[in-house]
Design goal:
Number of strands: 5
CATH topology: Glutaredoxin
Structural class: alpha/beta
Shape: globular
Number of domains: 1
Radius of gyration: 13 Å
Distance between the termini: 22 Å
Helix content: 25-40%
């Protein structure tokens, strides 16, 4: 499975994140009760399968609230793209997978970091 969930796939998620210092993490913050999220999830799975060089995580904000620290997610889906230790995108996105595909194509190792109040997600998952 290429779309990993912290609860059930934690060991695989940790292994993938530890595989390289510049690993790309694409995390989707959603909720099980959100119909939009449930419609988006299979599309994200297909994208994760198409981009196996990246780590894709599905994070339910209620099941894994500790991974958000003090940040409140109010719009779904909310996406995080982190390259190594740098967050290069964080925010809500329309639930059209093409938007995420274009975003990922526009980012690279030299993309500027963006400021967020999120804790370092890979470090939180490694703990």
């Amino acid at each position: 499975m290429s779309l990993l969930v912290p609860g059930t796939d934690l060991a695989a998620l940790r292994a993938r994140l530890d595989s390289s210092p510049n690993t790309w993490l694409i995390a989707c913050f959603c909720a099980a009760w959100c119909d939009t999220c449930e419609e988006y999830k299979p599309k994200l799975q297909v994208l994760a399968d198409a981009l196996p060089q990246h780590v894709f995580a599905w994070i339910d904000i209620e099941d894994h609230a500790e991974l958000l620290g003090d940040v409140d997610v109010e719009n779904f889906p909310t996406l995080l793209v982190q390259i190594g230790g740098r967050v290069v995108f964080y925010g809500p996105m329309l639930p059209h997978i093409g938007h995420l595909e274009r975003l990922l194509e526009s980012l690279g190792e030299d993309s500027a970091a963006v400021a967020t109040a999120l804790p370092d997600l890979p470090k939180m998952l490694a703990a």
